[in-house]
Design a protein that fits this description.
heterodimer; A: two-stranded antiparallel sheet; 25 helices; B: 12 helices; 70% helix
Chain lengths: 643, 302
């Protein structure tokens, strides 16, 4: 049954996406998307529950009979040709060149694999714990975002520029994206992996360019260019794996253990997709798209494909110097992206840099390549997917309400959008405070990075800078004066339910963080590293994590909350005071925050947080860090040759 | 008598497992208040004044509780409670011998609670203070994490992050972390809001920031902040005493020496800018800490 579920997980989102496209009106489209999203969630749950323990392998040949190799080859060529056609249409010579290279590589690979008679052993798809976790994240969080998009797009289309594409096509790509992503994390055959990899590139191109404005078309082109470069790197790696090591499967590359050259090229592809430095520009450009697209690209799909690939490959290369270079690149991106986020007051840009930073942390953990680090990386991936989805949805709602994405303009939202703001607060707090998962992960990341001082240094500097940019935003968004009652916000059901579910998910993972680690991720890591020869003392570190007392932290937060409630009886309107403005407050009947300034003219008391744009200038830092990141990547390739 | 810390905690745990943390939680604010009283007295004498009684911080808190509770919004009062709760939690975790890195993070969150409380009110002084407090954290937090890493590397194989493992060390931490002591001291000067680093919360209300982060807290709510600060003073110097964990008296001696040194530094130096602080901390103490860590790796402790 597993094999048919697998096919359904890929095809059902695409099918419902097509239905949404074909739907005549808004109402029927909403039905198609809602049912499709719920069906995808249900399928992923059934898939996770019914999966056999251990690994199972699935070949399309067994299901569909012969000729599936030709199907794969055909699809691979088709996608490359589509990219080439798009390149001609948007008049980009670079993308056209990359598409032609891809076509050439696909043909060359087909030629090699035909020569390698008898046919190479191996299955097309692999189902194991990592794949199941990934499918669950993609299907569940992705579907919630699709449902949120229903409410968001109604508002968006009403104000969208005339050049914008129709809602139908938007939802087709958005929902179909989930199917492609499911295929990507299940594929073991490199050829299928490449097909889904390139399909997600095309999906993101279509979504980023949705509004059709000059800026969005430019940024969509950039995304296509960088990801096509990554796709070409992946195809080259796959070709080299076939011609050099004689394998055409991911499992073959990790088993061959010496297939370092393909590893380096696949890692390069992963870096482009996960927007690691120096490839970050496409993800920053992607924020011109409607917010559900950003949420989807940042949390459940696209950027997660890259870190997934590294996680998939890492256990096959324990103790390899190339893995160290990968970890270094990740740790560097973690710190550099955090530094870049410090100077930004654009909310979506801060979120984008924080995504790049967090993905860097995941890659660093995967590259450290011990069971503890691996389990940490998995946990980070899960938490990040939930939190980022939540934060993007909240920022999207706030932006539609206040008409600005500048953090400094968000001082009013606590009063006007209490629910959304509370959810955003939970999300942001979960990025840096105990007892939420992110902090536990950072704690575990530092504990597992201790053997590599250079990586550790980047993690420490990055943590300090992360604190900086989150605390500023948290402080602004929660600014509130005394109100006897808060406003009731009116939001569409789809938006509100998505926010509640994801917010609940963040809190739940905070409560369940350590049990989740012990029940799910620690066994997963142990199982992954079995038989590879990890010393027993590293396995035992996994147990020590259980000693962490999250309950105690929860208890103290609860105590503070109870104490606060007990002081609640003092909170009476007559005890409310104005802030200290050197005794020069303008006193009127209504509470104001003005003071008597020059010539007794009333003046608004207003301060902004520190952005230090003279130090953290985006252009300057980007330039420097990009060169350094290129240096790290070159080091990675040098280590391949040197080994 | 109990020069050996471990014996004392074992003795208490023998009676009741919660006894030792309970004693610590009760004793910590008293020690902290006493230290702050001594601090004010010595500072006064340096400046040629008589100074308040040693117990003045305690009297202050008692008086604050009797004042009328005034407030600006509900949220920042909750953060005052969180600040206090997390400071107490740090003491509990230390007494239980828990993971020091986690202790550090909980401690950091206590400070973040103070920052967020200051940022939730529409008060320019409080917000500027909070911004600067964040800068202070950026300045000292890497050093504290490196300190924890140094402690980890100092424990015998297999290494451990547990505070209880530090108490079982055969040789003082100072022997393995000689450069981290001055680095940690610099961090303590920031945490104590002493010159030249007292940028976020002036002790003297005539400065440009008035009272900074805590300006909008008053009456009983300010008392909460003060009590939390007592805990923090205790925690900072308790950790300094851990540099000589094999003998409690020598450890206490180091902590006291550090305590007097920061009073001297406070009185001898002018207040400098936030950026100067970051530049200084990331160049000087950070370099010391890094050298110490690299040296430990060089000794084959990695």
């Amino acid at each position: 049954m597993g094999e048919w579920l697998l096919i359904l997980l890929i095809l059902v989102p695409v099918a419902f996406g097509l239905l949404a496209w074909a739907a005549p009106g808004d109402r029927s489209r909403s039905w198609a998307v809602t049912v499709g999203a719920l069906a995808t969630i249900a399928l992923s749950l059934v898939f996770a529950v019914t999966a056999k323990t251990g690994e199972s392998w699935i070949s399309l040949k067994d299901l569909l009979g012969g000729g599936t190799e030709w199907l794969a080859f055909g699809l691979e060529l088709l996608i490359a040709i589509v990219v080439a056609v798009i390149a001609v249409r948007i008049r980009s010579r670079l993308i056209l060149a990359l598409a032609l290279v891809q076509i050439g590589l696909a043909v060359a690979e087909e030629w090699f694999s035909l020569r390698a008679a008898p046919a190479l052993p191996g299955a097309d798809f692999r189902i194991d714990s990592l794949a199941i976790v990934m499918v669950s994240i993609v299907s569940i969080i992705g579907s919630i975002i699709a449902i949120y998009a229903l409410g968001y797009m109604k508002h968006h289309q009403a104000h969208a520029p005339a050049t914008a594409q129709g809602s139908g096509r938007f939802f087709f790509v958005l929902v179909g994206f989930l199917g492609m992503m499911n295929g990507l994390v299940l594929a073991d055959n490199l050829r299928w992996l490449i097909i889904f990899w390139e399909a997600t590139t095309l999906c993101s191109f279509a979504l980023i360019g949705h509004d059709g404005t000059l800026e969005s078309r430019k940024n969509a082109r950039l995304a296509l260019l960088i990801n096509s470069f990554g796709g070409a790197a992946m195809m080259l790696g796959s070709l080299l794996a076939l011609s050099g090591a004689g394998v055409e499967h991911l499992s073959g590359i990790t088993a061959a253990n010496r297939a370092l050259i393909p590893l380096a090229f696949l890692a390069l592809a992963a870096f482009t997709k996960s927007a690691q430095l120096p490839f970050q520009s496409w993800l920053l450009g992607a924020m011109v798209a409607p917010t559900p697209v950003s949420a989807l690209l940042h949390s459940a799909t696209m950027v997660k494909a890259g870190v997934y690939l590294i996680l998939r490959l890492a256990p096959g290369f324990t103790g390899s110097r190339v893995m160290f270079a990968i970890a270094l690149a990740g740790a560097f991106s973690f710190a550099a992206a955090a530094a870049l986020a410090v100077g930004q007051s654009n909310a979506k840009k801060v979120l984008a840099y924080s995504t790049i930073s967090n993905l860097g942390l995941i890659i660093a953990c995967a590259g450290i390549n011990t069971p503890l680090a691996y389990a940490t990386a998995m946990m980070l991936l899960l938490f990040h997917a939930i939190v980022k989805a939540l934060l993007f949805l909240c920022v999207g709602t706030i932006e539609q309400k206040i008409g600005s994405r500048d953090i400094e303009d968000m001082g009013v939202v606590m009063f006007e959008l209490p629910v959304t703001t509370l959810m955003a607060l939970v999300g942001m707090a979960s990025m840096l405070t105990p007892p939420f998962g992110m902090l536990v992960c950072k704690w575990m990341a530092i504990e597992s990075a201790i053997a590599s001082p250079l990586i550790l240094l980047f993690l420490i500097l990055g943590s300090a800078l992360t604190l900086f940019f989150w605390a500023k935003w948290l402080g602004r968004i929660q600014t509130v004066s005394y109100h006897a009652t808060l406003t009731r916000e009116k939001l569409p059901l789809s938006i509100l339910s998505a926010e509640y579910i994801l917010g609940g998910g963040v809190v739940l993972t905070a409560i369940m963080g350590i049990p989740l680690f012990q029940i799910l991720f620690a066994p997963l890591a142990v199982q992954t590293y079995q038989g590879i020869g990890i010393p027993a003392e590293q396995l035992s570190i996994l147990d020590s994590v259980g000693g962490l007392d999250i309950c105690l932290i929860m208890l103290f937060i609860a105590l503070a909350a109870v104490a606060n409630m007990l002081t609640g009886r003092y909170f009476k309107p007559e005890r409310v005071r104005l802030p200290f403005l050197s005794g020069e407050n303008v006193v009127t009947d209504a509470r104001t925050f003005r003071f008597r300034g020059l010539k007794d003219e009333p003046d608004e008391a207003w301060t902004t947080a520190l952005y230090l744009d003279t130090v953290f200038t985006e252009a300057k830092i980007t330039q420097w860090t990009n060169w350094l990141a290129i240096l790290v990547l070159l080091t990675m390739f040098a280590l391949v040759v040197g080994v | 008598m109990w020069s050996d810390w471990e014996t004392f905690s074992a003795f208490c745990s023998g009676i009741c497992p919660a006894l030792f943390p309970a004693i610590m939680v009760l004793a910590a604010p008293l020690v902290g208040a006493l230290l702050m009283g001594i601090d004010r007295k010595i500072t006064a004498r340096i400046q040629g004044r008589i100074g308040p009684p040693i117990l003045q911080p305690v009297y202050d808190v008692l008086k604050l509780f009797a004042k009328e509770p005034l407030f600006l919004n509900r949220l920042y009062i909750f953060y005052a409670w969180l600040y206090l709760a997390f400071m107490i939690l740090v003491v509990v975790l230390l007494a239980m011998g828990q993971d020091i890195l986690m202790v550090l993070f909980v401690h950091a969150f206590a400070t973040i609670a103070l920052i967020l409380g200051a940022m939730s009110v529409r008060s320019p002084y409080s917000r500027i203070g909070a911004s600067r407090k964040i800068m202070q954290m950026v300045a000292y937090e890497p050093i504290l994490i490196l300190f924890v890493v140094g402690i980890y590397l100092s424990t015998p194989h297999p290494h451990s992050f547990l505070a209880s493992a530090v108490m079982k060390l055969n040789q003082p931490l100072l022997f393995t972390l000689p450069l981290l002591l001055p680095a940690y001291f610099a961090a303590v000067v920031i945490k104590m809001e002493k010159s030249p680093f007292d940028v976020s919360s002036g002790h003297h209300a005539h400065q440009e920031l008035v009272r900074g982060v805590t300006i909008e807290y008053s009456g009983p709510f300010l008392a909460l902040i003060e009590i939390a600060h007592f805990y923090e003073v205790f925690i900072l110097f308790f950790i300094m005493a851990m540099f000589w964990s094999t003998n409690l008296w020598i450890g206490a001696g180091i902590a006291l020496a550090g305590f007097f040194a920061q009073i001297l530094v406070d009185n001898a130096s002018p207040r400098l800018t936030t950026f100067w602080m970051i530049r200084f901390m990331w160049a000087g103490p950070m370099l010391l800490a890094l050298c110490n860590i690299v040296w430990l790796y060089g000794m084959g402790r990695g």
